[in-house]
């Protein structure tokens, strides 16, 4: 596919992106090559899902200790418990949506929002992009809010790019999906949670992380909300430097997620977990 027909591939040539892609691949390969993965990969996947949900919730304002997330069974009500519950539901749902994502990314995104926000916001706004005049609650993202027409056009363009296929590395595609959803904030709520779940779907579906054991959400949380917002500002600027910086940030997040799972593997090998 030519770069003219594959604009995502062009981003792979931005300064520093190839290094990020290579570094991510090495980090992912290291954890997949761990001897524990041959016998207990399902346990690693489950633990990565829990830690990824905790990280995504932390970025959404519910920064709970991992053991508290593990201990709790009731995530009803409002506020932080609801946010943690939404992150957990999304992490579970993401693994079920690979087939839908390949056929219709927009339908998968609608499903993700329904899973995240269902029962917490007015029913008529759940599972669909916002309409003109509808407000958005996304406290972490302080970017100008695109209007509903721009959102619809850019979502359609993103879906077309994904359905057409790309030669771009998985990291690049995942970072663009993540960044675009955060910049657009297409839903009235839960856009960050949905964006991070969509990033996970791309990383898994691309074959980079097929067992979903390298939770980028862990890395995003570890790098911190300030760095996350600053990197997103770079993506939204549309400059080559800004977009490259966002891709590198996402790459570092995946590396940290891989490191987290490698530590879990080591703990299991020692019989400590």
Automatic annotation (TrEMBL):
It comes from the Bacteria. Residues 104-249 form the Fido domain. This is Oxidoreductase.
């Amino acid at each position: 596919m030519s770069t003219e027909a594959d604009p995502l591939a062009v981003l792979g040539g931005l300064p520093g992106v190839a290094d990020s892609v290579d570094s991510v691949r090495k980090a992912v390969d290291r954890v997949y090559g761990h001897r524990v993965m041959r016998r207990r990969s399902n346990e690693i996947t489950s633990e990565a899902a829990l830690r990824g949900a905790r990280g995504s919730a932390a970025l959404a304002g519910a920064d709970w200790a991992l053991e508290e997330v593990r201990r709790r069974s009731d995530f009803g009500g409002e506020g932080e418990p609801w946010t943690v519950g939404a992150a957990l539901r999304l992490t579970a749902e993401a693994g079920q949506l690979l087939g839908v994502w390949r056929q219709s990314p927009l339908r998968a995104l609608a499903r993700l929002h329904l899973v995240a926000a269902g029962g917490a916001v007015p029913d008529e706004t759940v599972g669909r992009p916002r309409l003109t005049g509808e407000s958005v609650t996304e406290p972490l993202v302080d970017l100008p809010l695109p209007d509903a027409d721009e959102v619809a056009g850019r979502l359609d363009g993103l879906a077309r790019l994904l359905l057409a296929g790309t030669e771009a590395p998985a990291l690049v595609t995942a970072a663009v999906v993540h960044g675009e959803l955060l910049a657009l904030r297409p839903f009235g709520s839960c856009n960050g949670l949905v964006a991070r779940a969509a990033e996970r779907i791309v990383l898994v579906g691309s074959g980079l992380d097929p067992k979903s054991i390298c939770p980028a959400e862990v890395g995003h949380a570890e790098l911190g909300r300030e760095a996350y917002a600053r990197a997103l500002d770079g993506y939204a600027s549309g400059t080559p430097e800004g977009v490259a910086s966002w891709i590198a940030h996402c790459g570092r997040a995946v590396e940290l997620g891989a490191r987290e799972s490698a530590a879990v593997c080591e703990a299991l090998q020692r019989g400590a977990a």
